[in-house]
């Protein structure tokens, strides 16, 4: 008869002990977190002055959207470091020009491929071609992008599809094609040219902002997935530039050039490659534009005031959406 109350007492004591242990463990892990947090912040601060850049000479690097603008500048900067370049674009003429520039700037070898990034099967086919003709890609730079610059209800469904296919879904398919070999070696680097529009909505950029936010979320999640799987050798870098003076944004204006500048493409190309060499997780250009995320803590009227002050309602008033070589005719 006595056994029952004794069992109950033991059960109660065990429960209390487990709860106390849980609290102690939680306090200890929080202290550990705070110590490491301070240590890593200090380490990052010191490394700002003595930062190490990785050597990419002889590395196989794939750049999408390499025929023009930022992609061309990235390619030229990578060429200067002696990498083997694989250039993907729908614009064959522009891609050949980039290839010539890359060779003249010291690339170890340059391979150009026509690939329409709206088409998943084409991406997989060209990826297989790359693997057999060049080898496993060691750094994958998803840079190609389109910009329609139309109000939401003026955007044909086909434009929305294209924006999401090129700016976001192509990143899924290229990563699916090249990531397994990186995982096998526990070495590789995935880069995405997202945009500041991943962090803040913009008038007449519903499709672009949605596509960039998705590209940002995709690569950030993949970075955490690789860490969780113990694949510390797989690096990721998300690039978020403000406006850059390329054909993509021809006609775009800024009323606050200090806060929301239109950056020079040569400067942007250099900063992106520098961020890749330093294996940064995020590259914000200019760095302070990242402060825009603080908007979520502001009252509603302050958010609209800030967006209006930054000129985000009118940036695209004179946007011209140029028709580009190799691209389908844009509908205005
Ligand atoms: N220019 C800016 O202000 C700015 C700002 C932030 C982010 N970005 C991003 O930077 C990246 C590069 O932009 P950019 O300014 O150099 O533009 P760009 O138009 O000069 O270059 C984009 C390249 O992508 C290629 N491309 C487009 N559709 C394609 C398809 N279906 N298949 C294959 N290639 C295709 C084009 O041919 C072109 O060579 C884009 O992802 C863009 O969204 C640009």
Explain the layout of strands and helices.
Elements lengths: L2 H45 L12 E5 L4 H12 L3 E6 L2 H13 L4 E6 L5 H14 L5 E4 L14 H29 L2 E6 L12 H23 L5 E8 L1 E2 L17 E2 L1 H13 L4 E4 L14 H10 L23
Parallel strand pairs: 1-2, 1-4, 2-3, 4-5, 5-6, 6-9, 7-8
This protein binds nicotinamide-adenine-dinucleotide.
Question: Can you put this structure into words, describing what you see?
Answer:
The structure is a single chain. With 332 residues, this protein is of the alpha/beta class. The protein has one domain: 3-Layer(aba) Sandwich (Rossmann fold), CATH 3.40.50.720. Helices cover 48% and strands 13% of the residues. The chain has helices at residues 3-47, 69-80, 92-104, 120-133, 157-185, 206-228, 265-277, 300-309, and strands at residues 60-64, 84-89, 109-114, 139-142, 188-193, 234-241, 243-244, 262-263, 282-285. The strands form two sheets. The chain has a seven-stranded parallel sheet with strand order 3-2-1-4-5-6-9, sandwiched between helices. It has a two-stranded parallel ribbon with strand order 7-8. α5 links the parallel β4 and β5. α2 (69-80) runs parallel beside α3, α2 (69-80) packs across α7 (265-277) and α4 packs parallel to α5 (157-185). It is globular and about 85 Å long. Residues 65, 67-71, 89-91, 94, 115-118, 143-146, 166-167, 193, 195, 241, 243-244, 246-249, 324, 326-327 line the site of nicotinamide-adenine-dinucleotide (NAD).
